[in-house]
Known about the structure:
- It is built from 20 helices and ten strands.
- It is an alpha/beta fold.
- Strands 1, 2, 3, 4, 5, 6, 7, 8, 9 and 10 form a ten-stranded mixed sheet that branches.
- Helix 16 (355-366) links the parallel strand 5 (329-335) and strand 6 (370-376).
- Helix 12 packs across helix 18.
- The chain is globular.
- Residues 1-85 and 113-124 have low confidence and may be disordered.
Amino acid sequence: MYSISRNFENGIDDASRILDINGLLDQNPKEDEINVENSHLEARGKKNRHADENNYQEERDKKLPAVYPETYNAPIEEFDDILLYTVGERAKKSKGYRTDLLNAQSKNKKGSKGCDGAKRRRGKKIEGIDLTSLLINCAQSIAADDHRAAEELLRKIRKHSSPFGDGKQRLAHYFADGLEARLAGTGSHMYKALVSKRTTASDYLRAYYTCITSCPFFTISNFTSNKLITSKSEKSMRVHVIDFGILYGFQWPTFIQRLAEREGGPPMLRITGIDFPQPGFRPAERIEDTGRHLARYAKMFNVPFEYNAIAQKWETIKIEDLKIEKDEFVAVNCMHRADNLVDEIVDNTGVEESPRNMVLNLIRKINPDIFVHGIVNGAYGVPYFVTRFREALFRFSAVYDMLETNIPRESPERMLIENGVFGKEALNVIACEGWERVERPETYKLWQLRHLRAGFMQSPLGKKLTDSAAYKVRKFYDSDFMIDTDKQWLLMGWKGKIIYALSCWQPV
């Protein structure tokens, strides 16, 4: 068995390996059919099943990053050294990449002084300008239908913001985009245009790797979840993981590797990958591809493997769709995706029960041996615009400050993260309403009440595990990253602001 330290190191790199560069380059349907058959891959969500997808479903799916294999143009070896190996010399290269980021960021700070022209525009320091107040005042003017005041405030914000400046300037730039779109009534159009922009596989991989190398949140979440499931299922010879929001399955290669190291041989592993259907003729295409990639890893490590893909709205899933078998250890996993589920409290949609509660009730009916839930911690899922804007500004200020501290300003990967991920989320929160608003996070304290009402009791994370997670953050990441616990929630944040949280549950 891997030690906790080695598992964590592997998690940093193996999280990115799931995209399988060779698979991106070679999409041979016949070869895929063979791999699917050998791994017992089963797929749900054919095109006829989802012909009547509503607008909200499309918006919810479009927020996910798009990767286009045909535009991949970087040499495979580039990613081999950075992503595919975790020991020996290549492990040192991985550590070196993190060091290079910090060194470049440090030089960037020193170089921003005394520059002129375009460079000064990118790194200038603003004296006497409170962008936070300008943004809040602008939001209040828009809420009051005072277009003249809002337009004047927007002009001031635009004058002192830039997508190339420091963290505050970049935050102001993207929030101004949202305010401008809301003022003009073009939020939906702008959001759709932003999410439809093509991102090459190579750019996406670089951005993703830059993110997990400089920020511990996703790595720690996956590490903690995998460790909990592995330790609690160690005596079971049949393990069934039901992953709500599997996306590309970044979490599971190291989990498969851990199972392969088990004394006495690995168990039979079944993964049910659940995600929202994609618009178009192949709603289950992405999660089917995820299953093929995971099947390759299972074959690599000689782990018996089955995969079941379900592409449909989570609240419509029936327990029989999950094909749960007797005598198997059942683990339910949901990492940072439940914030996209609607709650009837924040939207008067006429739905008898909120999808958010319906999914929790479904998980309770599954009666899992363990339910690991990671959430986006935020209070900007509320309907009132100004309150939502303030809460979003509070959270995204921490995010952009975190990026400013840990990634160089000139990094194209940082710009992709800021624009294509967080900028897009901010635009949705600020400029979209109703079904089109898909970013709806709650605080971990509200999720605590939801879990208890649904019939769950909290399972302790364990001091050894939380101490290990905190140690890894201190060792590998900036000192302003924080790991804490409250009511058996693992809290992850930046400079005291909680950004993500994770907890473990069992049915009562």
